[in-house]
Amino acid sequence: MIKSIDVAGLFLLLHLTGYLPAVRFAPQVHTVEIKDMKFQPATLKVRKGDTVLWINRDLVTHDVTEETRKEWSSSPIPSGKSWQMKVTQSADYYCSIHQVMKGKLRVE
Fold first, then answer.
1. Which end of the chain is more exposed for a tag (fewer CB within 10 A), N or C?
2. pTM of the predicted protein model
């Protein structure tokens, strides 16, 4: 007689013993709109290796700058233009031209 088994447990056992490869996720592209003097969404959850595309839909030029150590920064992004970056770690960022504009990238 066959007993019922826990499917999740079976997958875990197969993975730990090397019979089931690790699940890999294809990198995704996420969009942050810059409009009304805000980054929208203000907080974005991504995976390591994903790309974030900031599109300036505002009337004035903005930029995107990592806040804590200034590890990365875009050049000025004129209205109607965009800038993108591959994400490697969580970061808080802001517009160095309009310093009240802030956003967050959260790597999960």
1. N
2. 0.78
